[in-house]
């Protein structure tokens, strides 16, 4: 799946427009077009380098993974609605709800979030 061009690759390349919140040499953050909360930002590495999903991470991905998490703090400083709290989510694989095979972090907030965040309704009792 990693070899396929994703919608996120097209956003990074400027082929698809996005409402960009933040970017640096390594990553790009933009508003999700299908928000699940008042604030829903996606943070992606600009280069996948085999990192189509978190479970595919290897030793050489440690730097970008740390950079992405640290960048969340920069985004929170830029978006006032996140300053009272937020949640980060990484969906992994089909059962984890991943729909784009390019690692991405969901930064959601702007309201009181509930727990658990989602389920299939098939929990064992």
From TrEMBL:
It comes from the Eukaryota. Residues 7-122 form the HIT domain. A motif (Histidine triad motif) lies at residues 102-106. The active site is at residue 104. GO terms for molecular function: catalytic activity. CDD domains: PKCI_related (cd01276). This is HIT domain-containing protein.
């Amino acid at each position: 799946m990693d070899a396929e061009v994703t919608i996120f690759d097209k956003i990074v390349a400027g082929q698809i427009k996005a409402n960009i919140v933040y970017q640096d040499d390594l990553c790009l953050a933009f508003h999700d077009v299908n928000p699940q909360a008042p604030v829903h930002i996606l943070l992606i590495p600009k280069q996948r380098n085999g990192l189509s999903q978190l479970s595919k991470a290897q030793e050489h991905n440690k730097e970008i993974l740390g950079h992405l998490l640290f960048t969340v703090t920069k985004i929170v400083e830029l978006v006032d609605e996140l300053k009272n709290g937020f949640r980060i989510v990484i969906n992994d694989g089909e059962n984890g709800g991943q729909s784009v095979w390019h690692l991405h972090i969901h930064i959601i907030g702007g309201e009181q979030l509930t727990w658990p965040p989602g389920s299939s309704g098939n929990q064992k009792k």
